[in-house]
Write a structure and sequence with these properties.
single chain, about 350 residues, alpha/beta, Aspartate Aminotransferase, domain 2, Aspartate Aminotransferase, domain 1, 2 domains, seven-stranded mixed sheet, four-stranded antiparallel sheet, 13 strands, about 40% helix, about 20% strand, binds pyridoxal-5'-phosphate
């Protein structure tokens, strides 16, 4: 089996997690009678330093519920052009909430006050209202970039001072915390709402949570229903998230070390480069013009599976189902494949 570095969403629930899930007490969560979901929501809110949290089926839904509540049709949403909310959520800000995207384009997905300021419009009859600022930490599409906390605080504060509701897509906030030796609440205190995923680095099979103040989350429960995201005896899957928080949070640093190991090995190839990864994603650049990222992925496919993000870039994501040895093997497979493609060896 090739080492699966396509995403940290591919993890399998461990036997212990499955056992914990099987034992979970459940009830009808539409009537708020699922004790396991309540436990997860309370635990998550506490961890994030927010008044309340809502369990939802996906990070996509969690983000879009937040955006729907923060703005009205015809309002503006300021976000990076390759942020998940704009780039990978099937046009939901426009389709579900009528939001007008104003996009920021920076190299690493983070940005400063000046970029936001440049997108604020005068308050008059011609323009959509300045309304929402969405930040993403870690920033997925540029390789799990971790925001500088001071920059994050400055931008969020600037947004709030200028009447914007600030949302954090923290699908991998856990990774950002490990990488920067911070706590989730250290980031969440600057934003009005935050979405976190249990189904990525934490290794739970399903689900995300939206957190904010109690009234906001009460309204979010209503919007979740409007989007069809209410669930019944979903404590059985929420239990996977509780187990993941209790057992898989502390080990996330191992994934970061493994991503660094991959980068160190791949970077020795004269055809490839791979800078030290900030979190659990190693981005390989194909420097040799004789072949591209898709060819590299195909050539190494017997040993490792990874996504070509575009013509010259391959993304490798580490997670709890790949060991250090497997990461090393995968990295060496890329180096060998590049050499073959360059015609160095048969
Ligand atoms: C940054 C980010 N936000 C949101 C999501 C959406 O999560 P889900 O797949 O649970 O909808 C993802 C998924 O990979 C993501 O990477």
């Amino acid at each position: 089996m090739p080492v699966n570095l396509r995403s940290d969403t591919f993890t399998q629930p461990s036997p212990a997690m499955r056992e914990y899930m099987a034992q979970a007490p459940v009830g009808d969560d539409v009537f708020r009678e699922d004790p396991t979901i309540r436990e997860l929501e309370e635990k998550t809110a506490k961890l994030l330093g927010k008044q309340a949290a809502l369990y939802v089926p996906s990070g996509h839904m969690s983000n879009q519920i937040a955006l729907n509540l923060h703005g009205r049709p015809g309002d503006s949403l300021i976000a990076h052009r390759e942020s998940h909310v704009l780039f990978y959520e099937t046009g939901s800000p426009a389709a579900l909430s009528g939001l007008d995207a104003r996009v920021i384009d920076t190299a690493d997905g983070t940005f400063g006050v000046d970029e936001v300021k440049a997108l604020l419009k005068p308050v008059n009859i011609h323009f959509t209202r300045n309304r929402i600022l969405s930040l993403e930490n870690t920033f997925n599409n540029r390789g799990g970039i971790v925001w500088d906390r001071r920059l994050f605080a400055e931008v969020a504060a600037f947004g709030s001072e200028n009447g914007l509701s600030v949302h954090l897509d923290g699908a991998r906030l856990w990774n950002a915390c490990h990488a920067s030796a911070t706590q989730p609440a250290d980031w969440c205190s600057y934003v009005d709402s935050v979405s976190v995923c249990f189904s990525k680095g934490l290794g739970a099979p399903v689900g995300s949570a939206l957190a904010g103040d109690a009234e906001f989350i009460e309204q979010a429960r209503h919007v979740r229903k409007r989007f069809g995201g209410q669930m019944r005896q979903a404590g059985i899957i929420a239990a996977g998230a509780i187990y993941a928080l209790d057992n898989n949070y502390e080990r996330i640093g191992e994934d970061h070390a493994n991503a660094q190991l991959i980068a160190g090995i791949v970077d020795t190839s004269e055809h490839l480069s791979c800078p030290a990864p900030p979190s659990n994603m190693a981005l390989i650049t194909v420097d040799n013009p004789a072949f591209d990222a898709h060819q590299l992925v195909d050539a190494a496919a017997a040993d490792v599976s990874a996504f070509a993000l575009h013509e010259r870039r391959v993304r490798c994501v580490t997670h709890l189902d790949v060991s250090r040895e497997e990461c090393e093997q995968a990295a060496r497979a890329f180096v060998r494949a590049a050499a073959r493609l360059a015609g160095e060896v048969n």
